[in-house]
Every structure is written in C-alpha cells, then in structure tokens.
Hints:
Radius of gyration: 22 Å
Strand content: 15-25%
Number of helices: 5
Helix content: 40-55%
Distance between the termini: 52 Å
CATH superfamily of the largest domain: ABC-type transport auxiliary lipoprotein component
Shape: globular
Amino acid sequence: MSAAPGRQRAAALVLAACFxxxxxxxxxxxxxxxxxxxxxxxxxxxxxxEGPPPPVERERLARAGAQLRDEFERNGFYDVIDAARAAxxxxxxxxxxxxxxxxxxxxxxxxRSVNADRVLTGWVQKVSELILNLNIEIxxxxxxxxxxxxxxxxxxxxxxxWKRAVAFLVRDMREKGQGGR
Length: 181
C-alpha cells in the first residue's frame, strides 16, 4: 500500500518536468506560414521572345509548384497559405513586373497582404533542352531577409526530371535541417 504514494509522487514529478519543458520553449513550434508564389520560367532558348511559356512547360511549372507545396506541408516545413488569397496583389504586381522573383520587393508586399511569415519565389532557368535548373528563394516577409536560397540542376527537360528535381530539393532541405527557416 505504501507504493501508491511513491507512484503519485513520480507521476507528479513527470508532469512537472513536462510542464517545465513546454514552458521553456522546447516544445515543437507550429510551422511558419508560407506564401508560395507560382514558379516562373526564364527561357534563355527564346531570346527576345516575350510572353508565357509554352503549354507543356506551363503544366510542368504548375505540377512542380504543387509538388513543392505538398512536400513542404507533408514534411512539416511550413503551413502553406492558399495562393488564391493573394491573387489580387499578384495581379497588381504582374502589371509592373514580368518576374515576381525579381520585382524589387513586391513579393514581400504580396506576402504581407495575406499575413504570411515567409514568401517563396521560384523559377526554372532553361539554358537549353538539356540544361535547366530549379531555384527557390524564401524570404522573411517582414524584414526581407533571405532565409533560404537553393538551386538544383536538371539534365533533360522532361516531366520526370522536373519531378526528381523537386524531390531532391526537398530531401536535401530535410537532411540539412533547412525546413521551416
């Protein structure tokens, strides 16, 4: 019968330790919110040609962006905000800038318009049908500080190479502890 008070004390100590651990900030924080702007294509194979990318590459950009959003959420890197909420701000910025990754800070204003902690701009640079690279840059929406910049080279312009590039980028972020910055 004397074992019961000992168990109660042990349970109380465990609860107290858990409480102190939570209060001291060691508990997992909820992920930061991220506004992920649509991926863009810089096609150096069509010099001087303006306009949207060809349909096949528009589809690849959309699929790669969706894969990146899904992987970020699945890995708990960020709470990705629905980009549709930022559509009016994006349209205003697009009226003045061709690329949102190079718009003199307009991406920060867009992120702030939806109360995002972070904003991701991403682009695929197409040097040729064989040489491409996927680039992302994540900034703190309040300060404009770059918290992460990554690039992955692709060899070949196929659905498979784009998918593998996104998977590698996310895996590398996970392995290096770069998610959620």
